[in-house]
Every structure is written in structure tokens, then in C-alpha cells.
């Protein structure tokens, strides 16, 4: 449309130029008449008026074209925004679908766990019922008397076998001359230590090399009160409680 208007403007400008040039040519050869001048003036005014109309139309078209371009730019921006919103909505929809899948998976897991708990509860109830039936059908007999406890502590005056104690020579009662206290731990194991009886300790210190050295380990000269640091260990071999580890003692 703009090209057509420009073409028309150019055409009218050429026409005006020709009309202006024609009177000048005729005036050089012939004398002008009043009627010819009036006709030329009227034609020129018509052309200028048409030219003004065309220029006005051209301005209107340019203004309209500018508005159309602005509207087109706005429409493009709106279209771009709508596309971005559409893509965002698609992304959100996909996220919602993924969340729904996870929720459904968790729901299935919860169902499985609930079913397993129900099975365990049923099994526990059945077990409890069976135990109650067994308890109701069980005959309770009188409890036998507890056997008398076998004495586990014995005493000895000294290691009569040098590296051990004779099982037959162990005493059941403590005395002022029973230096060692022997505790039975099992049928073939026992521990021993020096008696806390001060009279027995005094008796041991009277000949420490004979009574204490084969059975006990100590780092200072034997004198004063004997302190048991850790018991020694014994193993039964035949009729002999053999010393496997010496008792550790100190003096105060």
C-alpha cells in the first residue's frame, strides 16, 4: 500500500512539473491569453490538492502501520509469554504425575507392610492361644527339695606337694595355721589366696621362704600384713591341685 501511495505522489509531482513547464514554453513562442492562464491555475490547484490528500493518506497509513507494528510486537511478546507459561505448566504437570507415582508406590508398600503386620499379629495370637492351652493342660508336680549346696571353700596349711596342694589334705574349717584359702570353681579348676586371718598370716611370715615363695609372687620383703592383689589358679590332676599361676600379694 505504501508503495502505491509513493507511486501516486511521484506521478502527481511529475504532472505538476509538466504543467509548470508547459506555460513557460508557450510563453516563449505565443502570447498568453487570460483564459489559458486561468485554466492552468485551476489545474495546478487541483493537482496540489490531490497531492495534499495523498500526503495525508500516506501519513495516516504510516501511522496505522506503526500502530500495527506495535500491536504485532505486543502480540509476539504475549505469545512468547503464553508459550513459556504453557511449558511451565507442562513441567508442573509432569512433576505432579511423578509425585502421584511415588505416592502410589508408597501406598502399595504400606499395604504390604500392613498385611505383614496382620500376619504377625495373627501368628502371635495363635501362639498365645496355644501356650494358654498347654498351660491349662499341664499338670503341676510338687517341686523337689533343692539339693544341699556342696562346700566350695577349703583350707590348707601349706603347699604340701611343693607345686600344689594334696586334695586329700584340704581342710573344711579355718584355723590359725591354715595359711591358704582354696575356692572350688568347677570339678577340675580352683583358685587360692592367702587367708585374711592375722594369726595365719603371722605363721606364714615366720618362714616366708617355705610357706609363701612356692605359691605366691611378691616384690618386697615379706613383713607386716599380707594383701591379696589377685588369686592364683589351680588345676586338679589326679589327687593333686596343681598350681598353674601363683597368687600375687603385697605387704603393708
From TrEMBL:
It comes from the Bacteria. The chain crosses the membrane at residues 45-63. This is Uncharacterized protein. Residues 1-21 form the signal peptide. Residues 72-120 form a coiled coil. Keywords: Coiled coil, Membrane, Signal, Transmembrane, Transmembrane helix.
Amino acid at each position: 500500500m505504501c508503495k502505491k501511495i509513493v507511486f501516486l505522489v511521484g506521478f502527481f509531482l511529475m504532472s505538476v512539473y509538466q504543467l509548470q513547464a508547459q506555460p513557460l514554453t508557450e510563453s516563449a513562442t505565443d502570447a498568453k491569453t487570460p483564459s489559458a492562464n486561468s485554466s492552468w491555475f485551476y489545474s495546478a490547484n487541483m493537482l496540489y490538492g490531490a497531492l495534499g490528500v495523498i500526503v495525508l493518506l500516506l501519513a495516516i497509513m504510516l501511522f496505522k502501520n506503526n500502530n500495527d507494528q506495535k500491536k504485532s510486537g505486543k502480540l509476539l511478546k504475549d505469545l512468547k509469554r503464553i508459550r513459556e507459561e504453557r511449558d511451565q505448566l507442562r513441567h508442573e504437570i509432569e512433576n505432579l504425575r511423578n509425585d502421584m507415582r511415588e505416592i502410589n508406590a508408597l501406598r502399595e508398600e504400606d499395604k504390604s507392610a500392613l498385611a505383614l503386620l496382620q500376619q504377625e499379629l495373627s501368628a502371635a495370637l495363635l501362639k498365645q492361644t496355644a501356650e494358654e492351652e498347654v498351660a491349662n493342660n499341664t499338670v503341676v508336680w510338687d517341686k523337689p527339695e533343692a539339693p544341699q549346696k556342696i562346700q566350695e571353700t577349703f583350707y590348707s596349711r601349706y603347699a604340701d606337694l611343693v607345686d600344689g596342694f594334696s586334695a586329700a589334705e584340704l581342710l573344711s574349717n579355718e584355723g590359725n595355721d591354715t595359711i591358704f584359702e582354696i575356692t572350688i570353681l568347677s570339678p577340675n579348676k580352683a583358685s587360692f589366696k592367702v587367708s585374711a586371718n592375722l594369726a595365719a598370716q603371722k605363721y606364714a611370715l615366720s618362714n616366708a621362704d617355705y610357706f609363701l615363695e612356692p605359691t605366691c609372687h611378691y616384690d618386697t620383703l615379706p613383713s607386716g600384713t599380707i594383701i591379696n592383689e589377685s588369686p592364683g589358679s589351680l588345676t586338679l590332676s589326679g589327687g593333686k591341685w596343681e598350681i598353674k599361676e601363683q597368687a600375687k600379694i603385697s605387704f603393708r
